[in-house]
Amino acid sequence: MTRKREFAFLLLIVPALLFYFIFYLYPVISTFAHSFTDWSLLQRSIHFIGLDNYRQLFNDDVVLTGIKNSIVYAVIMTIVQNALAVPLAVALDKNLRSKNVLRMVFFAPAVLSPLVVGFLWSYIMSSLDYGPLNQMLSHLGLGSVNWLGEPKLALYSVILTQVWQWTGWAMVIYLANLQGISKELFEAAHIDGANGWKTFWNITLPLLVPSITINTVLSMIGGLKVFDIIFSMTSGGPGHATESIVTVLLQRAFTDSQLGYASALGVLFSLFVMVVTLLQLRLMKRWEVS
Amino acid sequence: MSMKKAQRPYLLELSLIILAVIVALPIYYLLVTTLKTPEEAAASPLGLPHHWTFGNYAEAWNMMRYPRVFTNNFIITFFSLIGCTLLPCMAAYGFARSRSLIGKLLFVAVIAGLVVPFQIALIPLYKLISTLHLMNTLWAVIIVNISVTIPFNVFLFINFVKSLPLEVEESASIDGSGVIGTFFRIVLPLMQPVVASAAILNSLTFWNDFMGPLLFLQTRDKAVILQEVYRNIGQFSTNWTAFFPMMVLGVAPLLIFYIIMQKYIIKGIAAGSVKG
């Protein structure tokens, strides 16, 4: 009887497992295996070449730029987004009359396609005469800025766009967490004479740690994987100034047909994401305890 | 003292409203530019249009073959959603109740997928899809969508299943109901709230997905909305405002869905993320 039940439990697992093994796990393992080969669409045979691809990665300037950009991108986006989303959520948790409308507006950018958001903001930040952002700056008496054309600035312009799009998402997660905190805690703090700042640092922020963990992990991983928005805003340019790991990976694989080499980049990339995720969860856990 | 307390939220509210206006400006710019000529849009980007013409929309609608691509988007999202909720529900129940070692090992294998970014699988996946003759079919995107979301959804659902009381299932099994019958008749209906939040989270991802269609759908009759938007960027260098209705048509379905369903969407996202 229990044997039959156990068999039925396993039977329920099978469909999901088939999809997962065939279309996810197998390709991942295959990428790993191919990362040690010279697999290319330009030649018929595949040869084992050991760690050559990996060695080459560290001499490939575009790859190194992509890695650096993805890190800068993920870290800055995570910090700015959460630094804005926490106070926003705390404010919206108060008894405001326009609370629902405000929440709806702040979250709205998150439902737009990142591809379209990228196109839209490349018009907004355009350095041609119609660019509304520069027009606004000149109305304020400030000079115009080459948002996407200046190599040193372009990455930060993309980050700004992403912050606009995703801060509302983080805010919603913080709000859900805040709504789970008993209001009595705040009342008690108020009676004890704690002011707004003290209450925020000593009560609100520590209780927000679970959602801070979720949000920072989500935006770090999202930042490291960034593709659509860069594809539509800058295509990795000017030069290679805004290239990310995934844009380089897709170029090496599908434009240059260097599949083995791109696989090695993929392996490096996922090691990266894994380490960052685990490290972050670890750090956050320590913070949660103390 | 009480005066001060009553005043403070008003000031806060006013500054939040100003901030909301700033956040909404890009969306306003997107909408208002669709009704302008390039000259008008350049002269005053944020001003209201002089005359309201919707001709740009009609042209965009035809150029994008909107009914066709909308249907493709819908089919992909619909079938992906069924697969990405039903299969992980079944699996989560099986994993939660299985006592065998093999069940536990398989669970670890599935959960490991949580830390592996999907992009690493793209190259072999591309080859696999063409070997299976699924290239340029909507099924390719649907299958990939389902497979990629399995680890997270199993993870999300299993915590929910574990919180369900065992008594209901036990009484069903005394009544002679088998495991699979109990799952479909009793457990699955109970999972509705968590399935709803997963469905909302995933529907946004599936609908807005660009990389999957870009890789697996090549012809125009199989394309999704965003591919048609992408095709037309740069087509209008002089008459550049004509591209704006296309962007609007690109984001409109989800934006309208969001405005109607916003309470559920926000709730679903919060619940899905916090539990995940």
UniProtKB/TrEMBL annotation, chain A:
It is a multi-pass membrane protein. Residues 67-280 form the ABC transmembrane type-1 domain. GO terms for cellular component: plasma membrane. It is found in: Cell membrane. Keywords: Cell membrane, Membrane, Transmembrane, Transmembrane helix, Transport. The chain crosses the membrane at residues 7-26, 71-92, 104-124, 153-178, 199-224, 259-281. It holds the Pfam family BPD_transp_1. It comes from the Bacteria. One of its GO terms (biological process) is transmembrane transport. Belongs to the binding-protein-dependent transport system permease family. This is ABC transporter permease subunit. It comes from Paenibacillus dendrobii.
